[in-house]
């Protein structure tokens, strides 16, 4: 059984109206700043230093500026 990327992205596109808007916010912690293209690592670091937060995995799409 192979991976069907066309079907996968069609399913994502069908659910786009249920997506949540996430407001961008620049953050840093004692000199640490998030690394580009290391979303999961950045979130894990942040949650490890802010126990009142939790990781929520998903997709984030930023339109070109």
The number of helical runs is: 2
* Terminal-residue CA separation: 39 Å
Shape: elongated
Specify the helix fraction band: 25-40%
Q: Give average pLDDT, whole number.
A: 86
pLDDT < 50 stretches: none
Series of secondary-structure elements, N-terminal to C-terminal: HH
The rounded Rg comes to 15 Å
Structural class: mainly alpha
Largest sheet: none
Please provide the count of β strands.
Answer: 0
The amount of beta strand, in percent, is under 5%
How would you explain this protein's 3D organization?
- There is one protein chain.
- The model has no long low-confidence stretch (mean pLDDT 86).
- The chain has a domain at 23-60.
- The protein contains two helices and no strands.
- By secondary structure, it is mostly helical.
Core attributes:
2 helices, mainly alpha, 65 residues
Which helices and strands appear, and what pairs or packs with what?
Elements: H1 5-14, H2 39-49
């Amino acid at each position: 059984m192979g991976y069907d990327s066309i079907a996968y992205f069609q399913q994502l596109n069908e659910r786009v109206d249920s997506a949540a808007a996430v407001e961008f916010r620049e953050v840093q912690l004692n000199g640490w700043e998030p690394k580009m293209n290391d979303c999961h690592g950045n979130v894990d670091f942040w949650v490890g230093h802010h126990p009142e937060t939790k990781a929520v995995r998903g997709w984030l799409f930023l339109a070109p500026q």
